[in-house]
């Protein structure tokens, strides 16, 4: 998505709908997500949605063609 669309709540709305789908239609009990440590906006979105950071790790990023620090999150169904 381009900068033009940042700050309008579209990602929050879309992710919230996916969470509801996962709980309802799929019956999942836990969701996991992650983001590159140098992308704090993604972390703020996950926290806003109720995810909790569970670990920091190093992973290979295919688009960047190198290892990066990544933060992993989880959200348990209430």
Please list the strands of the largest sheet in the order they lie side by side.
1-3-2
Oligomer: single chain
The radius of gyration computed from the alpha-carbon positions, rounded to a whole number of angstroms, is 14 Å
Q: What is the second-level CATH architecture?
A: 3-Layer(aba) Sandwich
The name of the CATH superfamily reads Gcn5-related N-acetyltransferase (GNAT)
Reported for the largest beta sheet, the result is: 3 strands, antiparallel
Instruction: Briefly note the CATH topology name.
Output: Aminopeptidase
Overall morphology: globular
Helix content: 25-40%
Number of strands: 3
Element-by-element helix/strand order: HEHEE
Terminal CA distance reads 31 Å
CATH top level is Alpha Beta
What class would the helix/strand composition place it in?
Answer: alpha+beta
Query: Could you list the spans in which at least 5 consecutive residues all have pLDDT below 50?
Result: none
- Return the domain count: 1
Mean pLDDT: 94
**Tally of helical runs:** 2
- Name the beta content range: 35-45%
Verbal overview:
- With 78 residues, the chain is an alpha+beta fold.
- It is built from two helices and three strands, in the order αβαββ.
- It has one domain (3-76): Aminopeptidase (3-Layer(aba) Sandwich), CATH 3.40.630.
- The chain has a three-stranded antiparallel beta sheet with strand order 1-3-2, covered by helices on one side.
- The termini are far apart.
């Amino acid at each position: 998505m381009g900068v033009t669309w940042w700050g309008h709540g579209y990602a929050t709305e879309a992710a919230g709908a996916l969470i509801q789908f996962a709980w309802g239609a799929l019956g999942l009990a836990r969701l996991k997500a992650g983001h590159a440590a140098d992308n704090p906006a993604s972390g703020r979105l996950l926290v806003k949605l109720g995810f909790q950071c569970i670990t920091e790790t190093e992973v290979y990023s295919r688009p960047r063609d190198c290892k990066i620090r990544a933060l992993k999150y989880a959200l348990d169904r209430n």
